[in-house]
Amino acid sequence: MIAEILCVGTELLLGQVLNTDAQYLSRRLSELGIELYRIETVGDNPGRVREAVRAALGRCDLLITTGGLGPTEDDLTKEMVAEELGLDMVEDAQAMAHLEEQFSLWGRQMTENNRKQALFPRGAHILKNARGTAPGCAVEADGHIVIVLPGPPYELKGMFEAEVEPYLHDKLGYTIASRFIRTIGIGESDLEMSLRDMIDAQTNVTIATYCSLGEAQVRLTVKCAAGEDPAAYLDPVEARIRQRLDRFIYAIGETDMPQVVVGLLKRAGRTLALAESCTGGKIADWLVDVPGVSEVLLEGHVTYSNAAKQHTLGVKAQTLQSVGAVSEQTAREMAQGLHELSGADYCVSVTGIAGPGGGTPDKPVGLVYIGLRTPRDTQVHRFVFTGDRYRIRSLAALRALDIVRRALVEADEVMLVE
């Protein structure tokens, strides 16, 4: 099945909104084994939308549109799809009831223009929107499928997972399953070389490597007939990869590093505290996104100035004067002082130069020291990261969490990867 994505919205063309819908849909279609040939963006202009729909239907089997489902005059995606397919628009009673219920819950009067959100091309399969007022729809005509989705990413993702994916599975007659192996501490090129023979010899299970900020991933994908268990194909390949990359693997699946660390701390019955300088609270921010983190995260401090390092963490004035804030000894004293302050089992400290200024030949931009006080010892790790300020801070935060993860594993308090 060949697919195209058509994103509707003048705000996308003006660069006012980042088009994350296209990225998300591209990945999900790939996971389903659907070939995506083209992504196009058009403004809120009826003629251009219809022209883009017509051109796409001349090239593809499946067209997915995003945006243009609101109540205003320029929200005309459904109408343009209906016109191009020669269908009239009809009101769906269930969609109207959903709209009325939503407005009743909000204590607001539904305006007349909102009624258009319950209008769909005749014969369309309605896609429920559990996260907003605008339902989507799927229309089949002349051997084509057109799926019309809302623009807001939160609504689009919920609708795709709950409504579109099951719909497409029924149409495809087969299952595409993927499994992600997440690694840290190994670059994509080294990762690919470690698996080169397996990649060259791959058959039904395909192996692909790619990198993101601070980590590299292996994606395993298999195409199964209806009723087959994908694990029967994926498990043996994963086992071989584990044998080669075990010390670099930190998670299997979609779980990210903050989720892994919180899970490990919970299972070990341990607590964590943070003292951040150059990361400026980024580690705490990532961790607080994880539900249940309150069970393990005791406290966090942004000790950016030398005075804060002294007053809050007890870093010695002599240390700061002799070796500076960005040094192994300062990171060590920060971690030890944090333990005295918080009593946490694992105490992380981060100090570094995020740039773009402030670097010297001895202490370049990107130099970061990460300290960790554990129940056994205090360790300090030195890194020199490259990139802009955002990248350096993000890499430092990621590596700090990985240091905690490895310390928990090395203490035999938890298993490396479930």
Automatic annotation (TrEMBL):
Gene3D superfamilies on file: 3.30.70.2860, CinA-like, MoaB/Mog-like domain
Domain MoaB/Mog: 4-170
CDD domains: cinA
Coiled-coil annotated spans: none
Cross-referenced Pfam families: CinA, CinA_KH, MoCF_biosynth
Superkingdom classification of source: Bacteria
InterPro entries assigned: CinA (IPR050101), CinA-like_C (IPR036653), CinA_C (IPR008136), CinA_KH (IPR041424), Competence-induced_CinA (IPR008135), MoaB/Mog-like_dom_sf (IPR036425), MoaB/Mog_dom (IPR001453)
Parts of the chain that traverse the membrane: none
Family membership: Belongs to the CinA family.
Annotated protein name in UniProt: Putative competence-damage inducible protein
Lineage: Bacteria, Bacillati, Bacillota, Clostridia, Eubacteriales
